[in-house]
Each structure stands twice: as C-alpha cells, then as structure tokens.
C-alpha cells in the first residue's frame, strides 16, 4: 500500500512530522507562522516545501486562504494525502490561568478544518490528525470542542478522541495530550490504535545523565565551542537560586528543578523559564530539553534562545508521533484489505 503524502499545518519545528517521516511517509508541505521554526524545518526536512505563512491570512480579492495556493503548487489533483498538525493551544491550556472560552487562539482548529475542507475538493484526504492540550475538553471550552467534532462529521470523517501520555511511548516526561483523529474510511477509524513502548528508561538520568556540561551563551559563542551538539547551550546562571542546594530552588514554575530518577515534568516552558537541571546549578540546555522530548541527536533547532524554547515546548514528542504514524498506516492498510476482500 502506498502511504498518503503528508500536509503539515502548524508544523513548528516538526516533531509530529518527524514521527511520520520515520514511518515512511513523505512530508510534502509544512507551514508555520514562525520563521525560525520554518528555518528549523528546512534544515531537518530538506526535501519538504516548508513555508512561513500565517494560515489565517486571506487573499484580499478572493477571500481564499493564502496557504491553499501554496499547497496547490506541490500536489497534483486527486492525490491521496493526510493532514497533520498541532494548532496553537495556549487558549486551552490549563497552565494559563487567564484562559477563557473566547480567546481568539481557540479558533485555530476551525481554520485547520477549513483548510481540510478546501483540500477535500482537490485531493483524496484519507485522514486528519491533530494534537492539543487536555484543556480543550474542559467544560469552559465545551462549545468550541463540540463544534470541532461537528465539523469532522460535516466533513464525513469518522472522528476519534483519545488522551495519550508521553510516558507510554518511552518519552521521559509526564506530558499528556489529546489527539483528535478523523478517517475517510470508517474501518480505518475503528482500527486506529497506537501501540505503547514496551521497555524504556523513563528517568531524567536515562535521557541526559551522560551529557557533559553545556556551553553558556555569549555574544561571541561559536558552534564549534559548543560540546556534544549545536543546541547544547544555555543561559549563564545569575540567580542566587542556582546554588545547587536543596531539593527545589523555588516552588514555582520558573525554578522547577528536575529529579534525576524521575521523569521530567511536561516540557512546556515560559519565555526563558526552562526547567532547572537536577544538579540545581543551571537551567537545562536546549539539547537536554530536546532529549527529554525524544528528539534524535541528529535533529538541530534554529533561532534565538526564546525561539528555540518555544519550538521545543510546542513540539509533539517524536516517539509519540512515530506510534501515531504507524497506527495510521496499519489502519489504512486494514481498510484497504477490507475493501479488496469485499470486492472479491
């Protein structure tokens, strides 16, 4: 069976894309509004057409979403495709105490599905999959969530909603996210079951305990001066809280210290509020955060510190994505075999 080609919306650095790529899918198009994320994507997916565009932007004369014209340049009419992505989730996040139902960012899933509907007019959209935070299912967002599910039905996609813990896929962090899937074929929808990892060291020590000390940022810092990996750098610790003493430098999100022999809390940082290294003397390096997300050592993140932090925080852990991608392939294959059997 030939796998559908992938269109990635809100791609970010490409954590979800990497999982699908590793399972043999071609990532044909990716879009994100952050230029640094697209620079990262182009570096790690050189064969993909990756563009920095706000998917909400429309042509002023036609009202058509600009991104649709970009997609049409790389796909042939009638091609089998899958659409994946992670619409911005800050408006739904439980970590955001100011989140509210009418946050404009909550409309991003609607734009996502508007693009899906437009793509259905030109291509054979076999499946849709997107990730979001647990808060999307909270009572205060019920109207938005129910609207999303109705849209799947209107698009004649059999929808499924499930919560997935990164720990179940061998990722050493307590990250749980909602995955919403939709399949053109009902049989595929029923057989979409991501498999969990069987064995893994789910501790911070297992992920980053082998690394040397990182480089500290300086204006004249060169890549050749950074040990181990181009992203193995962090800001120089200046706060007195980085004394290395005590179990936790401060009971706040800004100074949350990791424990060597436990999984990391969710890799979702503030502007520069990266978790504190278990030794308590500095924050994690970008590379350490990448490993806690399950990124391979071959992957490199581009951009400023804050841009790199945002990209890592927003990424779907690649091991989770690989399992999702494998489950999609199995589901599509089962549906195809069922169709052949029925025809016979």
How would you describe what is shown here?
The chain has helices spanning 15-22, 35-44, 66-72, 108-120, 142-154, 186-190, 204-208, 286-292, 305-314, 318-343; strands spanning 5-9, 27-32, 49-52, 80-85, 124-133, 158-165, 173-174, 176-183, 215-216, 233-234, 264-265. It has a domain at 5-195 and 316-343: Rossmann fold, CATH 3.40.50.150. The chain has ten helices and eleven strands. It has a seven-stranded mixed β-sheet with strand order 3-2-1-4-5-8-6, sandwiched between helices. With 344 residues, the chain is α/β, with parallel strands linked by helices. The two termini are 18 Å apart.
Radius of gyration: 21 Å
Give the full name of the CATH homologous superfamily of one domain.
Answer: Vaccinia Virus protein VP39
Count of beta strands: 11
Largest sheet: 7 strands, mixed
Please report which band the strand proportion falls in: under 5%, 5-15%, 15-25%, 25-35%, 35-45% or over 45%.
15-25%
CATH topology of one domain: Rossmann fold
- Compute the average pLDDT: 88
Contiguous uncertain segments of 5+ residues: none
| First-residue to last-residue Cα separation | 18 Å
- State the name of the first-level CATH class of one domain: Alpha Beta
Question: What is the number of helices?
Answer: 10
What is the general shape? globular
Report the structural category: alpha/beta
Element-by-element helix/strand order: EHEHEHEHEHEEEHHEEEHHH
């Amino acid at each position: 069976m030939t796998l559908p080609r992938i269109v990635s919306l809100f791609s970010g650095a490409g954590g979800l894309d990497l999982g699908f790529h590793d399972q043999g899918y071609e990532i044909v198009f990716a879009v994100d509004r952050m230029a640094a994320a697209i620079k990262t994507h182009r570096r790690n997916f050189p064969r993909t057409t990756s563009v920095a565009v706000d998917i909400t932007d429309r042509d002023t004369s036609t009202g058509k979403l600009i991104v649709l014209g970009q997609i049409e340049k790389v796909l042939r009419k009638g091609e089998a495709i899958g659409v994946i992505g992670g619409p911005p989730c800050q408006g739904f996040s439980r970590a955001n105490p100011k989140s509210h139902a009418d946050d404009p960012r909550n409309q991003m899933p609607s734009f996502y599905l508007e693009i899906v509907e437009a793509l259905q007019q030109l291509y054979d959209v076999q499946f849709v999959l997107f990730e979001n935070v647990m808060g999307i299912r909270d009572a205060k967002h019920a109207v938005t969530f129910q609207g999303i599910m109705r849209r799947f039905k209107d698009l004649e996609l059999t929808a499924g909603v499930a919560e997935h813990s990164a720990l179940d896929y061998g990722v050493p962090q307590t990250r749980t996210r909602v995955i919403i899937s939709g399949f053109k074929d009902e049989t595929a929808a029923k057989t979409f079951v991501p498999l969990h990892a069987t064995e893994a060291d789910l501790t911070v020590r297992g992920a980053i305990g082998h690394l040397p000390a990182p480089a500290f940022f300086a204006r004249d810092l060169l890549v050749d001066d950074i040990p181990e990996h181009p992203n193995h750098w962090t800001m120089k610790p200046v706060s007195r809280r980085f004394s290395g003493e005590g179990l936790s430098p401060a009971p706040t999100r800004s100074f949350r210290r990791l424990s060597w022999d436990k999984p990391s809390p969710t890799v979702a940082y503030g502007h520069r509020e990266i978790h504190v290294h278990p030794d308590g003397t500095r924050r994690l390096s970008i590379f350490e955060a990448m490993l806690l997300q399950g990124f391979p050592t071959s992957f490199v993140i581009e951009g400023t510190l804050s841009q790199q932090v945002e990209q890592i925080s927003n990424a779907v852990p690649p091991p989770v994505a690989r399992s999702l991608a494998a489950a999609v392939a199995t589901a599509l294959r089962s549906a195809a075999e069922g169709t052949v059997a029925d025809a016979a």
